[in-house]
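Supplementary notes for students who missed Thursday's class. We covered one full example, reproduced here. Read the sequence, then the structure, then the short commentary at the end.
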Amino acid sequence: MESSPLEINDIHWLMSMIQTIDVGLVVLDSDYRVLAWNTFMENHSGKSPIQVREKSLFSIFPELDEEWFRQKTKPVFLLGNRAFTTWQQRPYLFKFNNYHPITGTVDFMYQNTTITPLASADGKVGQICLTIYDITEMVCAVSRP
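Structure (token representation):
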């Protein structure tokens, strides 16, 4: 059986999955402009995909340490290796409010982040994907006496 290109129905359910998954997904180009921004990001940042599309991540989030982030993502672009941040290194990449009533003892969302290279058909990495995991409940459970 031959594989066929993605059909419209396949693209529709893939987009639905990306939008409704309970993690943040952000795609950035090599100039750190936002190419994709899912519903998780919209809900927690208060910024819609239309507001952020094609804008520099650093202009959207001026509090983000640009030098640190560029250093962190450089090997992802150059070598095609994934990179990670954990809440122990940095409590968050994006300072989102904590919205869990059970873990209401903290003001912000603790996050782990995976930075994944996105290669084109020729193997060159022109974009990266940030996957933002809300781990606030886990951090609060570990921190409880």
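Commentary. The longest strand covers residues 125-134. Helices lie at 8-20, 39-45, 49-52, 57-60, 66-79, 136-143. If anything here is unclear, bring it to office hours.
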